[in-house]
Write a structure and sequence with these properties.
globular, about 240 residues, Endonuclease Iii, domain 2
Amino acid sequence: MTYKMTPDIVHALVEWFHHNKRVMPWRGETDPYKIWVSEIMLQQTQVSTVIPYYERWMDAFPKLSHVAETSLQDILKMWEGLGYYTRARNLYRGAVYIINVLNGKFPGTREGLMKIPGIGPYTSAAIASIAYNQPYGVVDGNVSRVMARLYRIGEVTSSARFKETVTDLVNQSLTWGAPRWVNQAWMELGALVCTPRPSCSACPLESFCEVRQHLCVENYPVRPNRKKSPVREGAIFLFPF
């Protein structure tokens, strides 16, 4: 099945976003370094938790060169309490790579960004889109949930087909707005309105939403079946002394 994004959907989304977006210290930034740090910190971590860490980080390391010039131990100390320390190590490795290999110049293309240690498809798309306004769709769990409901996508969320469909829809949407804002708008809608327990009456896309029209919101997105936990039997023998 082919799904088609429309300009009406995107315009309604972006208008809602500009009136309802949360205030964040990295919101509106176009510095690729700052976007990179915020995206890495936000992986598997709530915004409210990230904000004070981000602000402390930028106070200590306002420029990319400051990260590369310090020690890994100092980086890990600054990260302490945020968890998933591989993220901090990758930030450090990436900063050293940019300073030493790229002469301190942040790549201006997604292909260049992908060569930096620790930057993969998602983060490279986010930096290219938000920092450079390039048309790359940024797809996270929030965006996937929104698209699954908006278009009543029947594929299981873990399938390659589902991921390709969602990415294609987001990429289509970038045609009718600034990529940096459209991408952020999709993520914000999923974070604030189209949550696991959605507030459909507050959604700017309610009139376009397929699952809302078919009264089956609770059935989407389609999750993979959970594997049954194996049952193992055993015996214990107790010998009296």
